[in-house]
Amino acid sequence: MPARSVALTSGYFDTVFAKTTHGLIRGPSRFPLAGVVDPSYAGQDAGTVLDGTSRGIRFYASVAEALHQADPPITHCIVGVATVGGMLPDSLRSDLEYAARAGLTLVNGLHYLLGEDRYLSGLAVAHGARIIDIRRSKPASALRFWSGDVLSVSALRIAVLGMDCAIGKRTTCVLLREACRAQGVRAEMIYTGQTGWLQGVEHGFIFDATPNDFVSGELEGAILSCYGDTGAEVILMEGQSGLRNPAGPAGAEFILSGDAHGVILQHAPGRRYYEDLAVMSCAVPPVSEEIELIRLLGASVWAVTLFTRGMSDSESRLAQSMLEAELGLPVVRPLEEGVTRIADLIRARL
Amino acid sequence: MPARSVALTSGYFDTVFAKTTHGLIRGPSRFPLAGVVDPSYAGQDAGTVLDGTSRGIRFYASVAEALHQADPPITHCIVGVATVGGMLPDSLRSDLEYAARAGLTLVNGLHYLLGEDRYLSGLAVAHGARIIDIRRSKPASALRFWSGDVLSVSALRIAVLGMDCAIGKRTTCVLLREACRAQGVRAEMIYTGQTGWLQGVEHGFIFDATPNDFVSGELEGAILSCYGDTGAEVILMEGQSGLRNPAGPAGAEFILSGDAHGVILQHAPGRRYYEDLAVMSCAVPPVSEEIELIRLLGASVWAVTLFTRGMSDSESRLAQSMLEAELGLPVVRPLEEGVTRIADLIRARL
Fold it and tell me: Choosing a second label site near B85 at 20 to 30 A (CA), which of A32, A91, A157, B109?
C-alpha cells in the first residue's frame, strides 16, 4: 500500500509550532500528505489557509474522520508540531492513540519519544502499529567525530543561517536548491531538522538531538556522504536556531565545521525579540552586526532573505529596500519573488 | 571502606589526553587518588613527574601492582584519559578487565560507555563490580530547556573560555574559585566536563554528552541550583572547546545562555594550530580577534590567562608582557603566579 499521511497540529496550525506541517504542505513529503488534523479548520483546504494556494490537502477534525473519509487510505500519522523543549502537547494524545489502535505508522520528530511512552508504545505493539522516532539518537559508537575531511570536498558549501529560530531557513534552503537545479546546477541540501527528513531530503542529521561533541562530525559526515553519493556542485546546509539566540545559540558549526564558503542569512524585519523570549526582552540584534559576527567566524554573507509573515506587501518591500541600502547586499523575499537572484550569484561563484 | 582510586593513563600520561588525570593529581578528587597506572613511569611520583610537586601519588605498572601494593586498599578504578571522539584506547582494556574481576568500581567519563561494552559489563556483573559512566546522558524528559530564569540570578557570572580545547580552562577555573574564596568571596564553579565531576565539583553537567537542544537549559539549570544551594556571589563557568575550533566550536552558550557578565580567556601563546588539527593547518586566530568576537556575543574579556606548558619561564614572561601591551588587559600565568590579580578584579565588580 503506498504511503499516505496525515499530520497532527491539533489546535496549533496557526502558530510557529506547526512549521513542520507548513513545510510538509509546501512539500515535498517523504510520506505524501493527504490531510492535516486540526479541529479549528476542519473541512477547509490546508494550503489555502496556509498561503492561499490549494494543494488538495484537507483539514480533518480528527484522525477518525481522516480514516473514514480519505481515499486512498491513510497509512502514516505524523506528529506535525515542533514544540519548545520537544514535549508532546496534550491535545495530540487522543488522536495518536486512535492512530495506534488503527495500526497506522506513527512518525514523531519530538524529543519526547513515543517509543518510550508506555501507554502509546503498548497500544502500538497491541495493534501492530509501527513507531518511527526521528529524534532517537544513535549510540556514541555510531556517531562520527570531526576529521577535517570536509576541507577537501570541492563542492561549493553554503550555510542558510537565520537571525532566529522559526524564521524560514529550511524553506529558503529548499527553494534555493530548486532554483539552482533550474539553472542546471547540481545542488543538494543537508537537512538538520525533523522536517527536512520528513520532506524526504536524503542527506543530513538531526542537529539538536545529537550529543554536542558529535554535531560537527555528523555535519561533516552528511556533507561527505552527500558529495560521495551525488557529486554535487553546490551543497546547501540548513541552519538551526540563531547565532545569538540565548535559548540555544547555533550556527558556528556550519561555518567552521561545515567549512561554509558563503552564508545566506534569513531575517524577519518585523521581529523585535527572539521567538518566545519577548517577555524577557531578549532583542534580536541588528543584521549588520550579525554579518560582522559571521565574518569573524570565517564566512561572508552573500545575501539576506526575508521572512515576511504578518507583513503587508508594501511593508516587506520597504524593509527590503531599506536593508539593501544599509547592507549593500542583495536582499530577497523568497516566498514573494523566488530566489533566482541568489541562484545567479551562486552559479557565478562556481 | 573509604574510597581510594587509581587513574589509568596506560601510556598516555605525558599527552593532553591525560588532562583528566592531571586534574585529579592537582586535586581535589571525588575519589581520593592513590595512584596512576602507567607503565612508562612505574615507581615514580606522579606529582613530581607532572609539575615537580610531590603529592604522595605513585605510578604503578598495572592495576594488579596497585592492588598488591597500595595501602589502604584501592576501591575505584578511573579511566584517566579523555580521547578525541571519546573512544576507549586499547591499552586500558586489560587493566579495566583486571579491575572488574577484582570487584573495583569502574569510573568512566568517555563517550564510550563501559556499561554497554558486553565483555566488561559482563565481567562487572559476574564479580560484583559497579560501573559509573559519567557521560551517560539523561533521557530527554529529564533534560531542561532554557527558560531565561538565569537572567534574574544576582550572582556575578564569569565564563572561563579558551582559545582551544586542552588549554587549562578547568585548572584556571578551580584556581580562581580558590583565590576568590581566599579573599572572602563566596565563589562557586559550574563543571562542564567529566574531570570537574571527578574532582567533586557539586554543580554542573557534561556539556559534550548533552543533546544539543538542551545544552543551554542544562547550563542554566546548573547555575540556578548552584545559586539556590549556595547563595554564591560569584559563579565561575568552566568553558569547553574554543569559539572557533572547527572540530566542535563552543563557548557562545556560556555568554548567551549562562548570561556571563565577564569572560576570562585562556590562551596558549606557543600554540599555532588547533589541538590535533596541525596537519590541516587549522590555525588558532589572534587573541585580539577572539576578544572582539566575544564582545559581539555580548560579554567583555576581563583578563587573559596563559597556558605555558612547554615554554621556559623567560618565554612565558615575554609572551605575557607582549600580550599585555597589545591587548591593554591583565595577562596572568595562573600556574606560575596564581590568579590573585584576577580575584581582585572580580571582587571590585561585586
Answer: A157
> So what's the ipTM on this one?
0.92
B252 chain-A contacts, CB cut-off 8 A: 243-244, 249, 252
Q: Which three cell numbers stand for residue B122?
A: 559482563
Q: Does A282 touch chain B (CB under 8 A)?
A: yes
- In whole angstroms, what is the distance from residue B9 CA to residue B13 CA? 5
- Chain A residues touching residue B259 (CB < 8 angstroms): 246
Cα A23 from Cα A199, distance rounded (Å): 8
Predicted TM-score (pTM) of the model is 0.93
CA distance, residue B161 to nearest chain A CA (Å): 16
Q: Which residues pair with B267 in a beta bridge?
A: B306
- Which of A115, A170, A164, A148 lies closest to A287, judged by CA? A164
Q: From the candidates B108, B141, B213, B273, which should be mutated to test the interface with A, based on the most A CB atoms within 10 A?
A: B213
Task: Say if A85 is an interface residue toward chain B (CB within 8 Å).
Answer: yes
CA distance A248 to chain B (A): 5
- Residue that is written with C-alpha cell 533550474 in the block: A182
pLDDT in tens, chain A (350 residues): 789 999 999 999 999 899 999 999 998 899 999 999 999 999 999 999 999 999 999 999 999 999 999 999 999 999 999 987 789 999 999 999 999 999 999 999 999 999 999 999 999 999 999 999 999 888 877 999 999 999 999 999 999 999 999 999 999 999 999 999 999 999 999 999 999 999 999 999 999 999 999 999 999 999 999 999 999 999 999 999 999 999 999 999 999 999 999 999 999 998 999 998 988 889 999 999 999 999 999 999 999 999 999 999 999 999 999 999 999 999 999 999 999 999 999 999 99
Out of B139, B210, B244, closest to residue A256 by CB: B244
